[in-house]
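Sample intake sheet
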Amino acid sequence: MKTLTLGHSGMEVSALCLGILPFGTRVDERTSFAILDAYFEAGGRFMDTANNYSMWHAGGVGIESETVLGKWMCARGNRSQLVIATKVGFNRADIGASLAASTIAAELDGSLRRLGTDHVDLYYAHGDIRENPLEETLAAFDRAVKAGKVRALGCSNYLTWRIERARQLSRSRGWAEYCCIQQRFTYLRPQPGAAFGRQRSGTDELLDYCRENPDFRMLAYSPLLGGTYTRQDKSLPRQYAGADSERRLAVLAEIADQAGATPNQIIYAWLIGSHPAIIPLTAPTSLAQLAENLKSLEVTLTPEQMERLNTAGNP
């Protein structure tokens, strides 16, 4: 599978990251193992989870995703071949949202136990929890890196100015600094001022920041909007409703027809082919969905097609 460099960490990671969010709750263990096996067999080595996936699912506590991934790695004996990312910060059934030093230390140890490993390759601040001083959070992350429990650090759901402030603070103290951002991002553009709760959507400013800072990589979660692009039974989220989306959807359908691909495959190809290249997360709940998403890696968009996709809906 094609790889991209994960910012200044220097780690080469799969261009399509497998999101483990639904495993152990919405997706049972047997199906989860089958999807993990198929992704691995396709050359995929980059897997993403968190310490609270999926607490919002009926019966979920928030430790299920990491637990299933840990069981699979133990059964397959392939931990050394993988790049594993997990997160801390958002609430779980038994803890509140926090990036306090004590929370980071305790939750990292819990994640390591569930994953059955002595380190994670990428550890994210799941959100910008401003109740905790940034200096305390970054110092705690640096201690985790120096202890050998974490290889690289990332952030998620941050505003661009907060990313830069965090990186500058870490740099001034000689601490390990964030090498990437995982943000909500898709082909459609949300309406100006659209809110997503604790989630942050990628912006032109963030893309420009990544473009000007090649040592910092962007990853995109929810790139398919939960199946909205292809499922007739799902309506467009209200944050994306409007004429701009209608025009972009029309161009997306046209390019998909030209390329002999599905709209979902075009979206993944568009993200990976963007400047800067964006690593999409895919969170399939079936082998069929994974197979469709993996085929996006075979799609190459022409410069003209990329231009049409990029400018669709512009005045």
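Comment: The beta strands are 3-5, 12-14, 17-19, 46-48, 83-88, 120-125, 150-156, 178-184, 217-221, 279-282. The first helix runs from residue 29 to 41.
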